[in-house]
Amino acid sequence: MPLGEQDTRYSERAEGSASKLHTFRDGWRILLMMLKLYRLERPFYYFAIIGAVLALLALALSIPLFLTYLETGLVPRFPTAILATGLMLLAALSVFSGLVLDTVAHGRKEAKMLAYLAHPCSGIQPPKDSKGKP
Predict the structure, then answer these.
(1) Nearest to 98 by CA among 59, 134, 20, 46
(2) DSSP letters of the chain?
(3) Could you tell me if residue 132 is left (phi over 0), alpha (psi between -120 and 50 degrees) or otherwise beta?
(4) pLDDT per position as a tens digit, 2-27
(5) How far is the C-alpha of 97 from the C-alpha of 102, rounded, in Å?
């Protein structure tokens, strides 16, 4: 990989010009880019956090239902029970998706490293054997 420096001209802002930066809009763009990069670099942790949030929400919805069931033997809010079940299934699906994507990401990193190591090192001569061959 060739590297080099590029000289650039740096000076103060021209008189009377206004900044093109927007605090909130640019901040949201940066935050979304950070989340996207985190998802690509560490997919298991990203999806595990999503799964944990979904699981906690499912537990928060199901605890009152479970307590009511223990007291009365009835489930009065059946749609909430279905919602809690769906959220817990989504949580499990998110965690397992993170596991699969983490395996894929590690495979890609290994492939990149092998491709990088396949290039000869510049500037350093490989060691030679006693016959003068590399």
Answers:
(1) 46
(2) -----------PPPTT------HHHHHHHHHHHHHHHHHHH-HHHHHHHHHHHHHHHHHHHHHHHHHHHHHHS--S-HHHHHHHHHHHHHHHHHHHHHHHHHHHHHHHHHHHHHHHHTSPPSS-PPP--TTS--
(3) left
(4) 667 888 888 887 787 887 888 899 99
(5) 8
State the pLDDT at residue 2.
Answer: 62
**Amino acid making up residue 71:** E
Interval 45-101: pLDDT, tens: 999 999 999 999 999 999 999 999 889 988 888 899 999 999 999 999 999 999 999
5-35 CB burial, b ≥16 within 10 A, e <16? eeeeeeeeeeeeeeeeeeeeeeeeeeeeeee
Total-model pTM? 0.68
Distance CA 128, CA 117 (A): 19
